[in-house]
Amino acid sequence: MKFKGKAWKFGADIDTDAIIPARYLNISDPKELAKYCMEDADPEFVNKMKPGDIIVADKNFGCGSSREHAPISIKAAGISCVIAKSFARIFYRNSFNMGLPIFESCNAVDAINEGDEIEVDMDSGEIKILNSQVSSLKSQVFKAQPIPPFMQELINTGGLMEWVKKKVGTV
What we know:
By secondary structure, the protein is of the alpha/beta class. Helix content is 33%, strand content 20%. It has a 7-stranded mixed beta sheet. Helix 4 packs across helix 5.
């Protein structure tokens, strides 16, 4: 599976409060949570981004609390995947459990500029800058760890709970 969209850049140590502020934690509807995605990092983010776009961040993305609301809000907002230099471990696990693909690549993060059109291949781990806003180069390719087949299955079925429902036959 490939994801293609516009890059939205964020810095280091974007915590779960910046992804989905604590004042919205009483909301359980993903569509409602999506309205506030990244609000404390960029108040206009959900008005600027389009479904399929990609968040690109520096190190330690998703640090802070273990709330599942963070990857849920990102996914529900329509972000196709997140690329970062590194992820907080609990955010990493919650992302796959919620069906949000994430990729680690220092080189890609350093090369991608906000507004670049990028493509990410979940099977190969290739990250391509298709159209750079800054560089005259038309295409640059970077490598991230490919998502293992079982994790892809989680993503494709909508997350761990949907995968379990499918496996036990309640869907």
